[in-house]
Amino acid sequence: MDTTLRDGEQTSGVSFSPSEKLTIAQVLLTEVKVDRIEIASARVSEGELAAVKAITKWAKANGFLNRVEVLTFVDGDVSVQWMLQAGAKVMNLLTKGSLNHLTHQLKKKPAEHFAEVGAVIALARKKGLECNIYLEDWSNGMRHSRDYVYQYLDFLQSQPVKRVMLPDTLGVLTPGEVTEYISEIVQRYPTLRFDFHAHNDYDLGTANVLEGVKAGAHGIHLTINGMGERAGNAPLASAIAVINDFLPGVKTAVSEKSLYSASKLVETFSGIRIPANKPVVGDNVFTQTAGIHADGDKKNKLYFSDLMPERFGRQRLYALGKTSGKANIENNLQQLGIQLSDANLKKVTQRIIELGDKKEVVTQADLPYIISDILDSSRIEEKVKIENYVLTHSKNLHPSVTLRISVEGELFEEHSQGDGQYDAFMNALKKVYRKKKQELPALTDYSVHIPPGGKSDALCETIITWTFKNKEFKTRGLDSDQTVSAIKATQKMLNLI
Ligand SMILES: CC(C)C(=O)C(=O)O
């Protein structure tokens, strides 16, 4: 059962609009193909009622209505009436699974609580609703008031309930405890069906789900991207991968291929960014960075596991950076369909290492720009060399530059200002060339390209068109700083005239 729309929405700062809820519900049931979804808590707000109405209307028309569940409360007939108004059929009644909660929050005795729960179940059944029962704080109940839990389950055995839901409300269980508690309960109550609901406070959510299923839980509760209260719930994508890979006899209906796009959809709607290293769905989890891994992938797939990206509609990538090495670069070139001579491959590798020193990772999208830059430079002999420069940029003052440049072995130093940093640089350069009594080409066009990716440290390519002695030519510069990329393009021009 996916509870992104109920427990997942309890992530701090998240509120889905009714239309977002409807879209996520549709994706979960028709694309991801989870068996059941929990979509809201009853009585929350008018917006929530509108969302539940929209989902139940769509679900009814498409035969999904009894797979759509709503969290309700022990409140006489109030939640039941809300369910009827919302057109929902399955209620997940929140009750107390530990004596501690019962005594200190509800201030009730077990018999009193059971009677009230029984009354809500009877009313709900009379109105045609199906009932599942949550035993909130069940994990602490098992640790500290197991007699109470068993007294309660004895009572539930005689009730018309479909499932008993066992939440590790505070995410405190170890995998060993999950095994012990769930196997004990499943054996003791063979006529009841149990769901296990894990939280991730110790980062044990997925491990606990694995143990819960092994121990005999009939259902598990998960959320997309592990959204949920505090540290969240067990993440759907990880749990499905773990079940498929480590529990061969157990089958789920979930489509692995749609997990990534569902994750992205929820990322967009919730505004909660997925960490790049989040298993299965994170941006970097199928990217090899170390050159040795890329090399091993080519040799009998030494660094592959069953967790192949293609299962999830994703692709293995090879990061480019100072640790990536030749094999990573070759893999990227292969993916782009580019062939390079050994000499040029060496130059590209060297350039990537240099860039990697400045910026953590060079992306595959940067690669064609780097290659064309290198192929361009290799045609040029360096008679003019920009030795040093200082560029300033400050509020309400003109940008300025100090430039040291050697032109055919002669060293010049000039200062200048301009409307922008590059303009200041060009003004200093013009002073040098005036001294040398040499003409400079006219800049006739200047264009900047940022390879896709949208990072503030992305590489920037500047292409400048020059006109000189009635001829037009272009030079290209590449750097993560825009002014520096223009200066590099200019240095190439100086070496071409
Ligand atoms: C509200 C309840 C059912 C819950 O999510 C939990 O106990 O973890």
Automatic annotation (TrEMBL):
Residues 1-260 form the Pyruvate carboxyltransferase domain. Signal peptide: none annotated. Belongs to the alpha-IPM synthase/homocitrate synthase family. Keywords: Amino-acid biosynthesis, Branched-chain amino acid biosynthesis, Manganese, Transferase. This is 2-isopropylmalate synthase.
